[in-house]
Amino acid sequence: MRPEPLYSLFASVTSLPGIGPRISQLIKMIAGENLVDLLWHLPSGLIDRRYAPKVFEVKPGAIATLTVTINQHVPPPNRRLPYKIICSDETGQISLIFFHSHKTYLKRVLPEGEIRVISGTVEKFGQDLQMSHPDHIVTLAELDSIKAVEPIYRLTQGLSLKVLSKAIQNALENIPDFPEWQDPAYLNRQDWPTWKRAVLLIHTPEHQSDLEPTSPARQRLAYDQLLANQLALRLIRGQMRRTPGRAMNSTYTLLKKVEKAFPFKLTHSQKVALDEITADMSSSLRMNRLLQGDVGSGKTIVALLGMTIAIEAGYQTAFLAPTEILAQQHFDTIKSLVEDAGIRAALYTGRDKGKKRQSILDNLSSGDTQLVVGTHALFQEGVVFRDLAMAVIDEQHRFGVHQRMSLVEKGQSVDLLVMTATPIPRTLTLTTYGDMEVSRLTEKPTGRLPIDTRTIPVSRLNEVIAAVERAISRETKVYWVCPMIEESAVLDLAAAEERFLNLQSLFGDRVALIHGKMKGSEKDAVMKSFSKKGTDVLVATTVVEVGVDVPEATVMVIEHAERFGLAQLHQLRGRIGRSSQKSSCLLLYTGNPSALARDRLETIRKTQDGFLIAERDLYLRGAGDLMGARQSGLPEYKLVDFIEHANLIQTAQTDAKLILEKDPNLLTDRGRHLRLLLYLFEQDSGVKFLKIG
Ligand code: ADP
Ligand code: MG
Prior knowledge:
It contains 24 helices and 22 strands. By secondary structure, the protein is of the alpha/beta class. It folds into four domains: 4-46 and 154-211, no CATH class; 50-147, CATH 2.40.50.140; 266-441, P-loop containing nucleotide triphosphate hydrolases (Rossmann fold, 3-Layer(aba) Sandwich); 451-607, P-loop containing nucleotide triphosphate hydrolases (Rossmann fold), CATH 3.40.50. The chain has a seven-stranded mixed β-sheet. Strand 6 and strand 7 form a beta hairpin. Helix 8 (253-260) packs antiparallel against helix 10 and helix 9 packs parallel to helix 10 (299-312). The two termini are 14 Å apart. 41% of the residues are buried. Mean pLDDT is 88; it is low at 623-633.
């Protein structure tokens, strides 16, 4: 239900002249599908074409705009050599060089004897000056069509700057002028432009400083996005609060029974978190809590104890895991822990079909099942609970707000506990989880040793293999994680298969392979054999990323570690160090990693503190690692720089609070304009909770 003024911005990029299916796919990969995504694709730098020297004074290596006479075309003697066109002005000579270009085309745009303005990078070739494939070739009359300063954009293979710039320019042509949604007094004080002006400014930079996050236009747009985000979070939280929860008064009998089944005592922070959860559940307000704690800090156990309270009160509970492997594993653990207490638990995943599926669903709708562990499949329409009162969502970042809500809607005033193993820097907690209360598990269960982490060049692979051999002769288990190759699951797999064959030739059938393309049941079988007897070395693509728990695994090898983001390395390493045995993590790197990659590896090597790693991750991503954001699972804020705009986050939070206190349903004039803002940033889930007006 997007408002009409936004229609044009949410038109597909294919509506632009010259953008067909092929180019639109490429644009989608780097920016998105709609015109608005092009607007948010900010320049990454600029080309200054104001340097217009005479030929004799031109500096090789520079981008220059030259006015020259076309003297002579020199076609190549064979196809492997380039086509050359000799040009000059009154001070000197320069050659234009073209590979694989058509003579007729070149004769047409660069006719002999005429004057042309050319712009591009000048190189020195022996004693000669040359320019290969000029960016621009125009007549003197067309000179204005060369922009003195041109923004450059992040591209992808097959998408040229020319095509992308043209698309962005075309997208900018008809952008609407919205009524101002920001407070005019605040805008004035900040000296920020209007929305439309800001968008135009961003894409027509004059100086490097126009591209900085601190430029007025960038700040304005970042603030728009932050305010939209804070308003949406507040609206969602308001909705959660408005629906009263159920006050579940418990004698904690069941909780104590289950706790007795644990072979250990809760840590201090587990106790604190559990107290916070039980307080929420006994209060008449609905619980909306985030349980944050590093991998292995014991979140699952805390969640499980919380669930017993709802079960004791006669209700049903659901535990949602992001993958089938994890659902299976959580189910096995949970079942063994709750069985003696008489709790009826079931597993439901997309894999369950036919009669089996029906019987699980029947037990859910009759209320016979008290605790269900499952995957996304639990969101489906056919899944009906008799009375769902509490839902736990593991690895929260894998699910969107919408999915969170759709599970909650399966019951009345469902208490919600979401868990994440992604420690988040303070500035991000607000923008990501501003709608929730937070509990943190800050300590590791006792008796865990630090993980010995080393970085090793792949040239020393033999030593690594020897270490693996020693490890499995000690009856410990080894994860061997294979490279993550950008955007290519197929290549991922090929690399993993190759390593698998290689290790199998050394260690025989003690080696197994697991990857994302395998069927669920196959994955389960492999995981089972790795967690029990049979498999000792598990070669994996990044499917082992989340949650898997095999305490006997004490060695992890990560190939091409330089390609992983910090959050991902931290998560992967969290698979080991889960027992009282000493663990080691070997980060193999190839070639000469970039400074950024080296910094990541060093960070992982030096510390295991998830919060520290998260801060560093943010800092490094601020320095330009665009993969990182996606890997860490944090929402993408295309317009926000979490370091440079940190102060705006706080302001947006206060602003959102004041706005909704005065105008809770956004019905005033400004409120209506703010609704546009919410839709502009696709915060529709927030709008959903506004009274129609
Ligand atoms: P998380 O979900 O935070 O990754 P889990 O709940 O899966 O962590 O716990 C990791 C492992 O630590 C499990 O094997 C669990 O049984 C164990 N564990 C949890 N709490 C404690 C504790 N207080 N003392 C010792 N071991 C614990
Ligand atoms: Mg977990």
